[in-house]
Amino acid sequence: MVAAALAARGRRCRGVVLLLLLASVLAPLVLYGGSPVAHLPDSTVARGVLDREDESNLVWPQVAASDVSLAKDLTIERLGEHKNRVLSATDDWQVVETSSKKPAFEKPVANVRRKNPGSGDADAAITEGNDGAQSGQEGVIREVVSRDISADGFSEPGEINGAEEQNREGIKEIKLLDASEEEQNDGSGEAGGNNIAGMHTTLNSSLEKESITGRLYEHITNTTEESHTRASNSNSALPRTTTSAGHSTTSPDATIRTIKDQLTRAKTYLSLVASRHNHGFAKELRAQMRDIQRVLGDATSDGQLPQNVNNKIRAMEQTLEKVKRIHDSCSGTVNRLHATLHSTEERLQSHKKEANSLAQIAAKSLPRGLHCLPLRLTNEYFSTNSNNKKIPYGEKLEDPKLYHYALFSDNVLAAVVVVNSTLVHAKKPADHVFHIVTDRLNYAAMKMWFLANPSGEAAIQVQNIEEFTWLNSSYSPVMKQLESQFMIDYYFKNGRQSRPDENPKFRNPKYLSILNHLRFYLPEIFPKLNKVLFLDDDTVVQQDLSVIWSIDLKGKVNGAVETCGETFHRFDKYLNFSNPLIANNFDPRACGWAYGMNVFDLSEWRKQKITDIYHKWQKLNENRLLWKLGTLPAGLVTFWNRTFPLDHSWHQLGLGYNPSINEKDIRRASVIHYNGNLKPWLEIGLSRYRKYWSRYIDFDQVFLRDCNINP
Asked: Which of 574, 525, 531 minimizes the C-alpha distance to 552?
């Protein structure tokens, strides 16, 4: 349809050129020849004008020879001038149209052959030039109109169709004009017309066509601009989302989703840019993020966004593209992240190890008040008359019918809580006997406390481990090991004998104390007793324990609560099953059990020679290849298949490390155990459990006040 318009315009240009040529011919003839021109036959005038190759054909019967010669010369001169003007106009048209095209327009729009003014092919040259210009114009206008109407794909289909319909109407008009022009050309002859009337008709028709064509071009231009304007407004008001098929669809929150996507990418890039110390880009990116967040605000649909939202989106996209260009590839980023992760894991392990070491130091440290208390009591003990240092109810100490407790501790205040809590809940306190064994340093302080604070009718015996002369290195393998140079170096020379990954808890000096190993020598300590209840000094008794003596252990030596509810309390977590001695004698999945509250049948102990079994395994573990230090692994192998499981309500573990124990389990337990590093007398102890321990201490006691020991 655009091609038809261009063809009509080309024909109109040719008609105008011919009229100008004829006018230039007639003007000198009228000027110099007068009226005879009017009497010449039309065919003669036409032949004289158009047949320029043979000058003898020019016949002017009623004009003087000189005048005719002058007219002929002027006519030839004017024809050459007008031919040059037409060629120049054609070239100008080509230049203007070519400049309006895209750079891809490489081929010339016309190939105009320039000929001499006297050439007989002048008309053919003009016609060829116009035809070339016509084809070039068709390509130019077709591309410009199609590009404007469908610019960027923004126009709606209805708008494009409307523009096409309007263009079709204009093209129909041009086709009608073309048809009438062809009829006129057919009637006027090949040379452009045989009479002046035909020329005037052609001129009027050409002027009319030019006016109509101008209006049509104006209409097409206005329609294209309106379509593009409506498309732009539509693009601003209704954001488009492109589907997989390439079509544009509108969504009420498409722009908001675009902004949120940009913010997500910006946050990711910001962390990466900051890690590479690109502060300039980081600052620019933060500024763009603030701007786009300010534009987004609390909007939930695109209609709530400000008018400048598209500018902000473009600015953010440009910034993201800049950051993307300076950023490394994904593989480089992944490698850096892997390196960062590895470094972070190493630091985490280092911090864990350091925290564990500090916790062990805190657990081994003695608060100032607890350091003051034994000193104050020792001073008081040696200041007291020797006649007042005897423990009452000494006759109960070896009576097997009573309830005997074994307590081995160097902590005065902890031992006091065990005794007090047991007697508070005992139905018959007078039937309970406590056997406390301590070291030489704390013997006077321990004895002085119970002398100054009698426990009613209950018997309390305090013994010094130094008085057990039978417990020596020749009898006990563990005594020999504890006195070896290897152990001394291990504990007191910065751990040169230990591996770097070894748990620091095994380096706790408490393992050097023979008090921890006295539990394996109960028959020797209490030769006249048949059953003993062993209690750790970090326990608290909450119920009467006299019932436990009536439990039938069914031939077992040790009655204890099993701890296999958690995987780390099974045998394979305490013993080295890579060693054949362990692997061939024990089950790695066997349930462990807990020290802290154990009832021992000393009669069965003696009968089964448990102490000899203990000595055997201690000798085999001289180089610590079977288990680490501690008394629980030694107890597991010693009492293997000789332990009777007690109900879990007798012994609640974990108050020294587990902050999430159920309160109901704590209240219903007969004995609660602060096993772990977070002892209740330490500042690092769990505060929520301290009340169960501190309630059995009289903080108004004079020795506690002197040492500033408070709840």
From this structure: 531
Provide the pLDDT for residue 66.
47
Q: How many CB atoms lie within 10 A of CB 588?
A: 13
Is the separation of the CB atoms in 113 and 128 below 8 Å?
Answer: yes
Exposed e or buried b per residue across 435-473, where buried means at least 16 C-beta atoms within 10 angstroms of its C-beta: bbbbbeebbbbbbbbbbeeebeebbbbbbbbeeeeebee
Give the residue among 517, 551, 511 at the shortest CA–CA distance from 533: 551
Q: 168 — phi, psi (to 5°)?
A: -65, -40
Inter-residue contact 367 to 682 (CB < 8 Å): yes
**Cross-strand pairs, 533:** 405, 599
Q: Pick the more confident residue, 11 or 595.
A: 595
CA 661 to chain CA centroid, Å, is: 35
Radius of gyration of the chain (CA): 58
Nearest 5°: CA angle at 538, between 536 and 539? 75
Amino acid at 623: N
| Rounded Cα–Cα distance for residues 410 and 412 (Å) | 6
Which of the four pLDDT bands, split at 50, 70 and 90, describes residue 299?
Answer: confident
- Token look-up 């016509």 returns 134
Give the global pTM.
0.55
- How many Cα atoms within 13 Å fall on the side-chain side of residue 282? 11
pLDDT at residue number 95: 46
195 exposure class (CB count in 10 Å sphere: 0-12, 13-18, 19+): middle
Residues 265, 203: Cα–Cα separation, whole Å: 68
Reading the block at residue 498, the tokens are 């230990």
393-409: pLDDT as tens digits: 889 999 999 999 999 99
Model confidence over 673-698: pLDDT tens digits?
A: 999 889 999 989 999 999 999 999 99
pLDDT surpassing 70 at residue 19: no
Distance CA 481, CA 623 (A): 9
Q: How far apart are CA 313 and CA 296, in angstroms?
A: 10
| Range from 8-12, 78-82, 156-160, 680-684 carrying the lowest mean pLDDT | 156-160
Q: Give me 347's structure tokens.
A: 């630091």
Length of the chain: 711
Can you tell me the distance from the alpha carbon of 38 to that of 33, in angstroms, rounded to the nearest whole number?
Answer: 10
Cα–Cα distance between 441 and 425 in angstroms, integer? 31
Residue 500's pLDDT is 54
Closest to 561 in 3D by CA, of 649, 663, 473: 649
The residue ranking higher by pLDDT, 402 or 129, is: 402
The residue assigned the tokens 């999945």 is 589
Report phi then psi at 122, rounded to 5: -60, -45
- Look up tokens 């015996």; give the residue: 461
User: Which residue did the predictor score with more confidence, 331 or 49?
Assistant: 331
Determine contact, residues 292/312, Cβ cutoff 8 Å: yes
- Burial bucket for residue 475 (CB in 10 Å: 0-12, 13-18, 19+): middle
Q: What is the DSSP string of 411-425?
A: -HHHHHHHHHHHHHH
pLDDT tens for residues 45-88? 334 444 444 443 343 444 444 444 555 555 566 556 655 655 55
The number of angstroms, rounded, from the C-alpha of 5 to the middle of its chain's C-alpha atoms is 62
Contact 22, 191 (CB under 8 A): no
Q: Which two tokens stand for residue 646?
A: 């007690």
Question: Rounded to a whole number, what is the distance in angstroms from the first to the last CA of the chain?
Answer: 102
- CA–CA gap between residue 646 and residue 623 (Å, rounded): 34
Q: Which of 360, 349, 294 is nearest to 505 (CA)?
A: 360
Phi, psi of 469 (to 5 degrees): -70, -25
